[in-house]
């Protein structure tokens, strides 16, 4: 029942075997074209969005949430909606995002959506806030003159500790508890013309000022400078463990691996390895173009640095957040010189998979040619690299 544009009611919701009781309240004013709705739990159970758990195996839950919106028509062709959405203690779980529950203390969206005859736009005044971080995204989808998508995020100088402390619980477990100092700066610019995928514009970067790691959290990313136990995975399951260091009879230092094999592998995998800071923007751009054309994940654009991080620090769960965590760890190791390029390449050559249960170039040399890696010819090295 709505009285003086206001309503307040209790709702009983049954989802499978779960019964919940929610309190809904708000304002609906068609004359002023505005609305405000809030929903919160009335007992110990969180508000859990029904149906999608069974339909898409996705959990979305929270303590309470509210949304306000105001509609304005500028003229017959353009209009906009602006308002505020706030969610307290949200929880998200989906296997393509993370194997763990993703949790935030509070998330807020102060938004403005612009509508035209040929476009929908998230205005740059929109502010996304979560925990201790906030940023202004800009997005535009247009249908004329060509169907196109534009995304832009520019976050100038912000506290590095604010960023790492704001990472959602359950997403980037390697960074939990890390203490840093200094400032960061981030930018992302992306434009995609649906009719001309080869013309994609992509630019992204994370830079720092006075940045340093004061204390590692759950993971000490510098542990690769010493001998360590490596776990190899197949189809997401651990299949073998071995030491990366002198304790392993198949371990070879960089100097013990023929120069022509090193060059062959770098040429095949990452020819700019010694000259980039962990990323090759053009390679990422080309991978985006290829994946769009193929309509599947056909090309990764990973450098040797990124492959090393994926294999040493991360599990094999293929999801969006694992890729983001891979890029963050790569940036941290490269920007802070936590390991030299030589050490990174040495580890890579000693763990690279070259056949069924064959790891490292010395095992590969014995498996394919029945000889020590130091005895490989140029032709044999090219074969291994390919």
Structural write-up:
The protein is 24% helix and 41% strand. It is α+β, with helices and mostly antiparallel strands and 386 residues long. The chain has three domains: 1-115 and 123-130; 131-219, no CATH class; 222-385, Penicillin binding protein transpeptidase fold, CATH 1.10.3810.10. A hairpin with a 5-residue loop joins strand 7 and strand 8 (79-88). The longest helix has 16 residues, at 320-335.
Structural class: alpha+beta
Q: What can be said about the biggest beta sheet?
A: 14 strands, antiparallel
* Overall pLDDT confidence: 93
Question: What Rg is obtained from the alpha carbons, in whole angstroms?
Answer: 26 Å
Q: Which percent bin holds the helix content?
A: 10-25%
Low-confidence segments, given as residue ranges, are: none
Give the termini separation: 71 Å
Please tally the helical runs, counting DSSP H or I stretches of 4 or more residues. Answer: 9
Q: Mind telling me which CATH architecture of the largest domain this is?
A: Orthogonal Bundle
Identify the CATH homologous superfamily of the largest domain.
Biosynthetic peptidoglycan transglycosylase-like
């Amino acid at each position: 029942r709505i009285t003086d544009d206001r309503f307040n009611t209790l709702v009983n919701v049954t989802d499978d075997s779960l019964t919940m009781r929610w309190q809904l309240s708000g304002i609906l004013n068609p004359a002023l074209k505005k609305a405000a709705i809030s929903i919160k739990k009335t007992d110990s159970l969180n508000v859990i969005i029904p149906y999608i758990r069974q339909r898409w195996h996705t959990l979305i839950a929270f303590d309470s949430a509210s949304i306000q919106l105001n509609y304005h028509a500028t003229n017959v062709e353009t209009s906009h909606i602006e308002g505020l959405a706030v969610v307290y203690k949200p929880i998200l779980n989906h296997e393509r995002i993370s194997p763990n529950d993703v949790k935030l203390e509070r998330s807020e969206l102060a938004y403005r959506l612009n509508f035209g005859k040929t476009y929908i736009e998230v205005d740059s005044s929109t502010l996304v806030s979560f925990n201790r971080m906030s940023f202004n995204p800009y997005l535009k989808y247009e249908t004329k003159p060509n169907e196109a998508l534009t995304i832009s995020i520019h976050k100038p100088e912000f506290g590095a500790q604010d960023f790492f402390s704001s990472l959602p619980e359950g997403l980037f477990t390697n960074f939990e508890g890390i203490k840093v100092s200094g400032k960061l700066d981030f930018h992302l610019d992306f434009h995609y013309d649906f009719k001309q995928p080869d013309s994609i514009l992509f630019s992204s970067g994370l830079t720092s000022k006075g940045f340093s790691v004061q204390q590692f959290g759950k993971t000490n990313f510098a542990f690769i400078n010493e001998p360590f136990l490596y776990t190899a995975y197949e189809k997401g399951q651990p299949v073998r463990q071995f030491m990366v260091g002198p304790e392993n009879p198949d371990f070879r230092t960089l100097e013990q691996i023929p120069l022509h094999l090193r060059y062959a592998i770098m040429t095949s995998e990452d020819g700019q390895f010694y000259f980039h800071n962990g990323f090759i923007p053009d390679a990422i751009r080309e991978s985006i173009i290829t994946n769009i054309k193929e309509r599947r994940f056909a090309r990764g654009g990973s450098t040797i640095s990124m492959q090393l991080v994926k294999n040493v620090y991360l599990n094999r769960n293929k999801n969006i957040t694992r890729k983001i965590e891979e890029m963050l760890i790569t940036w941290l190791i490269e920007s802070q010189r936590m390991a030299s390029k030589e050490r990174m390449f040495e580890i890579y050559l000693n763990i690279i998979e070259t056949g069924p249960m064959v790891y490292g170039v010395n095992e590969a040399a014995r498996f394919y040619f029945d000889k020590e890696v130091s005895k490989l010819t140029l032709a044999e090295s090219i074969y291994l690299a390919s």
